Give the backbone structure.
Amino acid sequence: QVQLVESGGGLVQAGGSLRVSCAASGRIFSSYTMGWFRQAPGKEREFVSAITWSGGSTYYADSVKGRFTISRSNAKNTVYLQMNSLKPEDTAVYYCAADPFWGGSGSYYPTYWGQGTQVTVSS
């Protein structure tokens, strides 16, 4: 079993920055891809970003390219999402996800999910 715990959400003004983290524990292996999805009120959950655990390849949704950066610490089994130039439309619950067979595609539904952390961007 894999446990994912997000942290770092909060309230920020438009144009500001925020970093969310996801700590993984349990049967997490080095081959797991990890990433982030988000869900705004009344909308479907959408892909944000992913990073392969060993290779370090990264993937981003078009809506966040150039503003968000995903990174990871293998030693800490932690993935980070640095969010800059935040916009009100980035407001959502951000979910961490992990899967050993996930290539990083935004259309893949990972097996393991965290509980989510709220990010609110005020205008």
In short: The chain has a mean pLDDT of 93. The chain has no helices and eleven strands.
